[in-house]
Design a protein that fits this description.
Length: 243
């Protein structure tokens, strides 16, 4: 039986070209263990999903972020974390307000492989072309890629997404409401997010419009994927980061 899984993965993606997602970061537990994705916002702050830090926050000294590489095992620059800010209204049951800010101990250095994400300035309409990047498993309980993966999606409306979740999960007792503070998207069946992509960026025309939040197990089952709708939180982000 399928179940809701808040740790998404990329299934059916392809290797991302160098420099495709210069804002992409990998949150590491210990030195090598990739935990979640994140996006560089400015020299000191990154954005990820609240559920990525909800249980790991007590281990802050063991966490770091790596930026500036398309490879999990080589390259890039590593930064320790100084602090984090969970959204004050984060709900771990429904995944509402699934956002978290990460502050690095030292400034992030920009170069030709590291640049900040661009904040969105308008809503993402249904039918928009979106792109997810990440190092999630390439299938349920599958291999973790060394190369950064990318996958294209199409956004759908909130009501359509909510109806599909109620139809699929309602009879399993797992349904939760989809709101306009979330952004839904679909890909071809057999493709989608998978474990390790949580917290990673969803972009439209180079703007960071979503943060990977909720998916389905097994991966690529065909039910819409849900991200946190960044446009609804721009003021919150700027308030805490000084952007």
């Amino acid at each position: 039986m399928c179940k809701i899984d808040i740790e998404q993965r990329i299934l059916g993606g392809q290797d991302a070209s160098e420099g495709l997602a210069k804002w992409q970061a990998s949150i590491r537990f210990g030195y090598w263990q990739h935990n979640c994705g994140a996006s560089v916002l400015n020299e000191r702050w990154l954005l990820t999903a609240a559920h990525c830090m909800y249980s790991y926050g007590q281990y802050l000294s063991m966490l770091s972020v790596v930026v500036g590489t398309n490879h999990l095992r080589t390259g890039g620059q590593r930064y320790n974390l100084e602090s984090y800010i969970l959204h004050e209204n984060y709900n771990p049951t429904t995944q509402a307000n699934d956002l978290c800010l990460l502050k690095t101990s030292t400034p992030i250095v920009y170069n030709d492989k590291v640049q900040p994400a661009v904040m969105p300035t308008e809503e993402t309409p249904p039918g928009s072309n979106l792109m997810l990047t990440g190092w999630g498993e390439m299938g349920t309980d599958g291999d973790i890629p060394d190369n950064l993966q990318m996958l294209n999606f199409t956004s759908i409306g909130t009501k359509e997404c909510d109806d599909k979740y109620k139809e699929f999960y309602g009879k399993r007792g797992k349904s939760f409401p989809i709101t306009d503070k979330q952004l839904c998207m679909t890909a071809n069946q057999g493709t989608g997010g998978c474990k390790g992509d949580s917290g990673g960026p969803i972009v439209k025309d180079l703007s960071l419009v979503g943060v990977v939040s909720v998916g389905v197990v097994p991966c690529g089952y065909g039910v819409p994927e849900v991200s946190t709708n960044v446009i609804k939180y721009v003021s919150w982000i700027k308030q805490h980061t000084g952007m």
